[in-house]
Amino acid sequence: MAKTLRTSGDYTVKAGAGYDSGSGINTIRLDARYVRLPGDLVVEGTQTVVDSQTLTIEDQFIEVNRNNSTAGTEDSGIFFNQGTSNNQIIFYDADQSEFVVGSTTHDATVSAITNITPGKIRILTGTESDQAATKGYVDTEVSAIGGAFSINFTGDDSTTVAVASGNTVDIAGGSNISTTAAEPDTVTVSLNNDLTNITSITSDASNGDLELVANGTGDIVINDILTFSGAASTPTATTVTKLYNKTPAGGGTGLYFINSQVSATEGELISKKKATALAIALG
To answer: Residue 202: what pLDDT?
Structure first.
């Protein structure tokens, strides 16, 4: 039969002597299938132990370190008992202002975490390849494949610039150079247009030739005046014919050619005026 005990004031149940001094030694046991407390429950002891198989909490948030009144100076978190192994813990490290996951030799009665071995977080399911990486791990892996990620570019003035990850390289070439970039790691620079606004083409090889080569059976076409600078000396030519400019002589042009397969000495192209005079003189 249900019973109700009512009181108009506070109601105290004492178990054992010395309650008022905080040294009570007896236990109050509520032996029932369910114990319901419609009001708030305040536990003022130093330890609360919940010995149940399932703990269900309706609240959306759980507050730990409730009576902390200082500004960001106390560690707080959740311990996971691992029996004879070190406890696992997720906690907020107040000194470093960061969250830490790992194992510790501390028990949950500690007030500050001073012993911690960082642990791993698995962000998916499967093997170690699914684990979240730390900055230190990434730095080590990057160093193992060649150090800090950067590419060196050297300009025409021999100045070298290191382009690190996250920077942008701008290749400027107007209409003469086309640049395409594709993920993950391909950059293509193409000179696939007609050259325009070019005032000088110079070979960078010491005493090297500068070759103009047409495609297939095409010709090299000069659509304007071709100027020859004065040659300091007579060049040598064996299997090719070379044209060059020197002081005009009997030919009256100053434009010479040489090919050792034609003649051992150079020849001067003859002008129309000289050719006409020779024709008249020779009858």
So the answer is: 84
Q: What is the pLDDT of residues 122-176, one digit of tens each?
A: 776 666 666 777 788 877 777 776 555 677 777 767 788 877 766 777 777 666 6
pTM: 0.44
- pLDDT at position 180: 77
State how beta strands 178-182 and 242-245 pair: unpaired
Torsion angle, CA of 170/171/175/180, rounded to 10 degrees?
Answer: -90
Token pair in block for residue 30: 């509520």
Whole-angstrom distance, CA of residue 37 vs CA of residue 41: 7
The Cα–Cα gap between 243 and 13 comes to 123
Q: What is the dihedral of CA 8, 12, 13, 17, to 10 degrees?
A: -150
Q: Is the dihedral of CA 266, 269, 274, 278 positive or negative?
A: positive
pLDDT in tens, 206-250: 888 888 888 899 999 988 988 888 888 888 888 889 999 999 998
152 contact partners, CB below 8 Å, separation of at least 6: 160, 161, 162, 163
d(CA 151, CA 3): 84
- Note the pLDDT of residue 93: 92
99 Cβ contact partners less than 8 Å away, ≥ 6 residues apart? 90, 91, 92, 93
